[in-house]
Specification:
Layout: E1 8-9, E2 14-16, H1 17-24, E3 35-39, E4 43-44, E5 53-56, E6 61-65, H2 75-93, H3 112-117, H4 124-132, E7 144-145, E8 151-152
Parallel strand pairs: 2-4, 3-6
Antiparallel strand pairs: 1-2, 5-6, 7-8
């Protein structure tokens, strides 16, 4: 699908992320569905130079913006980044905020280094929040904690 040109800021050479997510929210099929769009563009929100993704939970919609995720990595690295940012944005749609655990998929990423550092899994704190919201999380999507309370990657 084409993103309307009216969402493109010619001065910044980027799309306005909020407008894109609101636009794609029309793809939802009822209130029980969600939309996650992977857009091969660069995007921003006011106050930030760029965003890797954006979710609007009340609309059940999110987008991951792929252009920057492709930089300075292999195809495998790029795909890992896309998975992490997709899971991150879906976490927001399901009601999670940002996490202070730098390994948790819900940690805020302000750089590709931070995206690469985090895992594609939820920490126990975020899993607990999801469970309270009635959302189950497969064991394979949870960061495991060792007996010494250290995280196992």
């Amino acid at each position: 699908m084409e993103i309307p040109e009216e969402f493109f800021d010619r001065v910044r050479n980027q799309f306005l992320a909020d407008a894109v997510v609101r636009y794609v929210s029309a793809l939802r099929r009822g209130h029980s569905s969600i939309v996650l769009v992977l857009a091969d563009v660069d995007a921003y929100v006011p106050g930030l130079n760029f965003v890797f993704g954006l979710a609007i939970p009340e609309l059940g919609s999110a987008a991951v913006f792929l252009r920057r995720l492709r930089l300075w990595t292999s195809r495998e690295g790029y795909l890992k980044r896309v998975v992490k940012e997709s899971v991150h944005e879906l976490g927001h749609v399901f009601g999670l905020g940002h996490c202070r655990n730098p390994l948790c998929v819900m940690s805020f990423s302000n750089s590709l280094l931070e995206v690469d550092r985090k895992l594609d899994k939820f920490c126990p704190t975020c899993v607990s929040k999801l469970l309270k919201l009635g959302i189950s999380v497969p064991e394979s999507s949870i960061i495991q904690v060792g007996h010494d309370r250290s995280y196992k990657t």
